[in-house]
Design goal:
The protein has 408 residues and is an alpha/beta fold. Helix content is 22%, strand content 32%. The chain contains seven helices and 22 strands. The protein has an eight-stranded mixed β-sheet, with helices on both faces. Strands 9-8-7-10-11-12-13 form a seven-stranded mixed β-sheet, covered by helices on one side. A five-stranded mixed β-sheet has the order 1-2-3-5-4, with no helix packed on it. The longest helix has 17 residues.
Length: 408
């Protein structure tokens, strides 16, 4: 009987080169239909004959249809083993993976499509199809309340929703953000041009409500702020450090694990002078400044730097943040440089500059182990001294890395 022996890097079961979504190692299955999608052969129809002992009951009712959380049916301890094995294959190293303190209710942001088909997330592999949901267990109970109120808002105010295939309709997304340690909630409605009725009576539980207009042709869940109700920001707190969050600012999506992330970065720092590259809203820089380090941070996003300065101000720290690209920043004169680049990794010119002028200690934070590995090979004058994985994204195949590199 065909048995799933392993998972692919993307978290799909594998039998003889065929990928089986939502299967588990140890499952005995019968494949009924296979389609070639891009370069892969995917089992689009299959029957489970005998369950693997690794299988657990998925908490989400949309599991198997929704494109997210594709490992939710697999025991969490095995999810961690899978991520350790994934890092071993990519990096050639044994890397411990710190489990997420919570595996449900951990996400502090979800982007819900609001369509004529329903409210929810895209079906796996189908950009035009939305899986209608009542709540999102990885976000937590607030999602159920918000979705219920949204349905009432749409019905009572007769709001036109999105027809994805035709790319028509007014209300496109509802983005929920929640400070897990502060319990503050932000609701952001993303629309096309038009008029949004006052949503505040329906969302009285929210600390902050935003209306944003996406004036581009791109399918994105953000836009230009038209107006807001309630507070301008919500706050999150990580290990005693407060961060303000705006609809258009990035923040680590798992607040509970983000506490471990900032602590690990602080542990790896050497010396007193720290450069926080790709600083965003100052997640690392402000945390370190509060610990007594002398911090300078930069980001190419002007708005992110405005938020970083605001966050430095509310925490009463002296950290300096400025707008620049990684091509412009001087890396000399620091004891430690922190890099947390986009998934594409470090720019080749920055790699050469770090090799030539960088400090004794380089801390590399990455959500993409493959580009991390490529960059480390290109850094000829640094070697990995310590490395740790953090499961920021339970029930997905993704894993975060934090590594301390030292000059040879």
């Amino acid at each position: 009987m065909p048995t799933v022996r392993k998972l692919s890097e993307e978290g799909l079961g594998v039998i003889g080169g065929i990928l089986i979504p939502h299967s588990a190692p140890g499952d005995e299955i019968e494949i009924e239909e296979v389609k070639r999608i891009k370069k892969s052969r995917i089992a689009t129809k299959w029957k489970l004959l005998r369950s693997s002992p690794l299988r657990v009951g998925a908490r989400c009712k949309a599991f198997g249809r929704c494109g997210g959380c594709i490992l939710q049916h697999i025991d969490y301890s095995y999810q961690l083993e899978f991520k350790k094995e994934k890092l071993r294959k990519i990096l050639g190293l044994e890397v411990e993976v710190i489990p997420s303190p919570r595996i449900f209710g951990h996400r502090n942001r979800i982007d819900l499509a609001v369509t004529v088909e329903g409210i929810g997330f895209r079906e796996r592999g189908k950009w035009w199809s939305i899986v209608d949901i009542e709540e999102c267990p990885v976000f937590g109970p607030t999602s159920k309340k918000a979705i219920k109120r949204l349905r009432e808002f749409i019905e009572e105010e007769k709001i036109e929703t999105w027809r994805i295939r035709e790319d028509k309709g007014f209300l496109r997304y509802m983005v929920l953000r929640e400070g897990k340690f502060t319990r503050e909630v932000m609701v952001n409605f993303v629309t096309k041009e038009g008029e949004l009725p006052d949503p505040s009576p329906y969302f009285d539980f929210a600390t902050s409500i935003y209306w944003s207009i996406n004036r581009t042709k791109s399918d994105v869940s953000y836009g230009d702020v038209e107006r807001f109700w309630g507070k301008k920001f919500i706050a999150e707190e990580l290990d005693g450090v407060k961060y303000l969050i705006h609809p258009n600012s990035f923040f680590q999506t798992n607040s509970y694990q983000a506490v471990n992330l900032v602590k690990m970065v602080a542990k790896f720092v050497n010396g007193e002078k720290v450069l926080d590259m790709y600083s965003g809203v100052g997640t690392f820089g402000i945390y370190l400044a509060k610990k007594g380090f002398e911090v300078k941070g930069f980001d190419s996003n002007e708005f992110a730097i405005e938020m970083a300065r605001e966050n430095a101000n509310i925490n009463g720290v002296e950290a300096e943040f400025f707008v620049a690209t990684d091509k412009e920043v001087e890396v000399r004169g620091f004891d430690t440089v922190i890099v947390d680049p986009p998934r594409a990794g470090l720019h080749p010119k920055l790699i050469k500059r770090l090799d030539r002028e960088g400090p004794e200690t380089l801390i590399y934070v990455s959500c993409n182990p493959k580009t991390f590995y490529q960059n480390v090979k290109q850094l000829k004058n640094y070697r990995i001294e310590e490395i740790i994985g953090l499961d920021m994204f339970p029930h997905t195949p993704h894993v975060e890395i934090v590594s301390k590199l030292s000059k040879i």
